[in-house]
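pinging the channel bc i need a second pair of eyes. not urgent but kinda urgent?? the chain im working w is below, pasted from the shared doc
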Amino acid sequence: QVQLVESGGGLVQPGGSLRLSCGVSGLTFSTYAMRWYRQAPGKERELVAFISRNGGTTNYADSVKGRFTISRDDAKNTIYLQMNSLKPEDTAVYYCNARRIISPTGDYWGQGTQVTVSS
């Protein structure tokens, strides 16, 4: 059974930092590209960051470039999202996603973790 479990969310003041983690089990982690998405109240889910299977390629939404960093530790089957200089508009539920586009394909989601940026 595939499981993705996010952790690390919480309440932080503007300008602060948080590090999200997503532990993955039940699949061959190194063969999956990984993504962080977020969904704010009343808004559609948006892609925040991407990291390739080997970690050699990363991409970010324009709104988080220079502030967020995605990374992966294949020895721990875990990805991270380091979030710095947080803004109130970063408030959302953050989800991790594992996706494999070559057979056997797979597309799996975690349950989400709440991040609230407020003074």
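so The CA atoms of residues 38 and 94 lie 4 Å apart. and The first strand starts at residue 3 and ends at 7. — does that match what u expected or am i reading it wrong
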